[in-house]
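Page 47, continued from p. 46.
Same chain as before, 484 aa.
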Amino acid sequence: MSKQHLYLAIDQGSHASRAIVFDASGSIQARAKADIHTLKPLPGWVEHEPSELIGATRQVIDDIGVALGPGAKNIRAAGFATQRSSIACWNPGSGATLSPIISWQDRRAADWLRQFENREERVHEITGLVLSPHYGASKLRWCNDHIPEVATALDDQQLAYGPLSSFLTYSLCEEHPLTADPANASRTLLWDYRQRDWSDELLDLFGLSRSCLPASVPSRFDFGSLRVGNTIVPLSVVTGDQSAALFGFGAPTSDTVYVNLGTGAFIQQVVDGAPVFAPDLLSSVVYQDAERAVYVLEGTVNGAGSAIRAVAQELEMDQEYLEANSAAWLDTIEDPPLFLNGIGGLGAPFWVPDFPTRFVGKGDKAEKIAAVMESIVFLLTTNLEAFSEFAPRPERMLVTGGLANVDPLCQCLADLSGLPVSRPRIREATAKGLAYLLADRPDDWSAPSRPTDYSPATNLPLQQRYQRWQQEMRTQLDAVPGAG
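Result:
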């Protein structure tokens, strides 16, 4: 592989579209960023404006073309990593958008989805996922039922719908393909993770049409081509943001548990061999090519960075003041209250979409922020404990994402989990993981240098608060109808 070869990784996230160019050894050669807005028109509704999102992604590709100039001809391949569980509806003939981009955080169809609770076990068996309004099926059905343009397009056989990744690929590739990769297709709750294709049984269950869905294809595929400056570049890999981040350090291994701390938090562990069914966790395909599929166990914490922001806003706390002081609060406050964190719905391994969020005990503003941060640690530890039934205990934890820069939070994770925690010196794990896949997983891919390590220490007060938090969570769960 020539050292002149370049790889364009496009990371479309909740707050921005990013494009980063890596060389064949994994070093960054160029980057661009364009912010997007997250809209919350009603409680539980979270969405993006399609034209803004597509425009921002097109802009960063164009900016890369300008930055590289004639060097753009060295780009061997491009890839997309997108928000999983976000969906869109569009007209594949005209390209017109028919719905907003409904975010993975959105829960507008939660009430409609409850009618299928008696089929939850079967849904989980087929998809590896729980029945949740965060996934795409209920959002797609909501569009069918509530957006007249979508219903009309369906009647006229001019409707395409599916993951955000499919809409992005259709909109930006010269060929306008209609394809869906495994990581994003699976998050529709319509995809059989063992067969790696759409499930007719689930399409019938939710009243959705296979003819409107993109073709199910591997993560590595000839998706089409992108124009970068004056160069046409093949789009070779499409996957989810968290799935790509797993490859940010090379090939993931089963002896490591991977945690990404962002708007939400995700914890993943590679499963060697065949996929494992875990009733209270998720089973996912994070990568598929012509030769292999990589499966993981996964847990989710819906309220991580979003929970801190939501509570800070409720407390009328200045964002700059929060960012400057939150780490110190977590490090020095000795006895914060407990926070029962249902921001965005309670995720793994509880799965309660309408869990009542509240503080247990009194505290000032700083103490409450510390409690929110501890709740993220508590929820991740609960997921890790649930992993132990289905996978060997890992030897270490690797953390990435914006909140991973909070040193006391990483130390709390080490203390409570009993695992050494490592934070690599890498800011763009999603983009770098995508570039690694674009380069076809080279053996000489550069590893992040000098990670920051956190060794487990005895932290009896934290352990005691965790035990009290577990008791309070059980009490609250017992009081929530339908929670188990």
